[in-house]
Task: structure prediction
Amino acid sequence: MQNTQIIREPIAYEKIPTRIFQNSEDASKAVANEVADLIRTKNKAGQTAVLGLATGSSPKTVYAELIRMHKEEGLSFKNVLSFNLDEYYPMQPDAIQSYWRFMKEQLFDHVDIPEGNYHVPDGTISPSLLATHCQEYEQKIEDAGGLDFQLLGIGGNGHIGFNEPGSLENTKTRLMMLDQSTRAAAKGDFGGELIKVPKKAITLGVAKILQAKRIVLLAWGERKAPMISNAVEGQVTAQNPSTYLQKHPNTLFIVDEAAASGLKRMKTPWLVEDVEWTNIMTKKAVTNLSLSLEKSVLKLTNEDYNDNGLSDLLALHGNAYDINIEIFNQLQYTISGWPGGKPNAEDTNRPERAKPAQKRCLIFSPHPDDDIISMGGTFQRLVDQGHDVHVAYQTSGNIAVSDEEAHRFLEFVVDYNTGFGIKNDQTMAIYKNALSSLDAKKDSELDTPEVRLVKGIIRKGEAKATCRLVGIPEENVHFLDMPFYETGRVQKNPIGEKDVALVSDIIEALKPHQIYAAGDLADPHGTHKVCLDAIFESLKMLRDQNYMKDCWVWLYRGAWAEWDIHEIEMAVPMSPHQVLQKRRGIFKHQSQKDGVVFQGADAREFWQRAEDRNQGTAELYNQLGMAEYQAMEAFVRYHF
Ligand code: F6R
Result:
């Protein structure tokens, strides 16, 4: 048969140059270097560098690197003029969510840029002056000679600046109604209350963005993957304003591996370039072929391989059946209802060791609910199969509890005391202080330490209730309260020695045979990543201890994504009954139900996301030709 479907041109599908970095730190350094080079070159020529700047989570690491360069390498911002993309409307500049304040905190207050050289659209301008303000903002950019460099992030709906889907290519700087998904994603910055998120924002128009001499767009994490592949490989459409960047002659996308994971060169690299047929690459190609042709692995034919760009793989093995059976077996062996190992099983192909038959298992849960959301079925099986299961909740999770929830619990304590005739002035004083701080709390203020403690206690109670339901004793439930998390705001402190010590101490105390950790790097605030870093750091420190030779580490993914099917090394099946039991466990986290503070753009509740994902994994296994289960939880082994 003619090989008709294959086009082998390197990066042929990409319409915007895209550089992929292993992680966002290295990528941010590359961006900061480019900005610094521009500033220095302009400086030498006695000119001003005109920068277009963005807010949001993505550019923070770039700003941090620029500050470092200013402090350590003498990079001066005296010759910089900057214009930010957008600002909520209405918005006071000192409000905690204002982009003016964001820029001062993240960059301007730490470098020598003269006041008056930086500009952010004015969120306090009266409606009657708004149109003029927008025109003047554009005029100022033109007077400065246009933007030399525009930094961009990308919204979950493809917005650039706040140019939401539907924005035309020629739009000017204007007031924009925010998309519902943009407002939902910003909810966490507004105390979890959607109603408080402004409905409008002033944004630099698409036309002005496209006039910039150079544009660099940043994206980190898996959540950005679909938008990056649409922008880079899709058709230009107003429904995804980032696709307009395909028309710009000097745009570069700088992304980390997770954000790049939807690109064809990552998903199906054999269609883009020559690949080395390692086992994992073969598994990736065969599972992809099977799923895209909707044929089980064992039914794939020589023609299927030839017609879909896999003729070299076929040639390597001689015939389809040999590849099929090899990959089928590998997939089959990942399925195990015995996550702690099947006692007395001779079969060495199982994902876990049979011995010791009873293992000590330590589940690290970054927030107080990741254990049950991401691996509730496996947690339950480990307990039911007689292992000594411990859970270590790494952070208090206090910022994700609403004020209303805190109020209710504070009231409970007072009513409890009154009901039992306990006269306790201290309780009353704490109650009154906390209540008045909650009532008086403006958007610009953080919770008091007392309120944060209450919120943390609420989440502890929920986690304990889950552990009771699953059936582990209270002494096996550990709360680490890692200090990096305790800032009271979304922005956390960097990881410190104490954080690592808390993690390594518990590993040392328990000497586990199995560690389960959240290998999910895509959570919205980076907490999972810091928690994982603390575990990796501890493993490095403890690796020479004797007991560590017996310790296997399994990584699960958080609430946002699942491992790719070819990566999975252990898939733990769940019956319909086990799915319901897991749902009950997730329901114990009442503060995270019915509209959580950090919902993100996904409107589903956590139990729904977990069930959809676990059912999705089971369906994939079934489509590949394995047994049909109700749901499955997936793990990848980490070798240290
Ligand atoms: C910010 C802005 C937005 C963000 C986008 C991505 O000034 O204009 O377009 O760049 O919403 O936000 P993060 O980086 O938080 O994912």
In short: The chain has 21 helices and 17 strands. Residues 1-10 have pLDDT under 50 and may be disordered. Residues 54-58, 85-86, 153-155, 159-162 surround fructose -6-phosphate (CB under 6 Å). The first strand starts at residue 18 and ends at 21.
